[in-house]
Design goal:
With about 90 residues, the chain is mainly alpha-helical. The protein is globular, with a radius of gyration of 14 Å.
């Protein structure tokens, strides 16, 4: 992880539950991107099965920390290499 990425993780409690806002800050992407990838089943970090009494998305901090440690920060807005480009042709 680059030195400037460490500040994004400094204020995160990885022992607890993370909200979508936390993931947006950590992964430097928008909530729209995360929601879209979840809908497409392409988001690499699975949310918790239960969404709580307010029905909001949540992730286990330990799962997110493990994924970041194993993969580093990736730009979720860039499609995988085997995905054809979208848009006009």
């Amino acid at each position: 992880m680059a030195a400037d990425d460490s500040t994004a993780t400094d204020s995160i409690d990885f022992d607890g539950i993370l909200r979508i806002e936390d993931l947006c800050r950590l992964l430097q992407t928008s909530d729209e991107t995360i929601r879209k990838r979840l809908k497409e089943n392409t988001f690499p970090i699975p949310p918790l099965p239960r969404r709580g009494i307010d029905n909001k998305l949540r992730w286990a901090g330990s799962t997110v920390r493990r994924w970041i440690d194993e993969n580093g920060r990736v730009d979720l807005d860039i499609p995988p290499a085997d995905t054809p480009p979208r848009g006009r042709r």
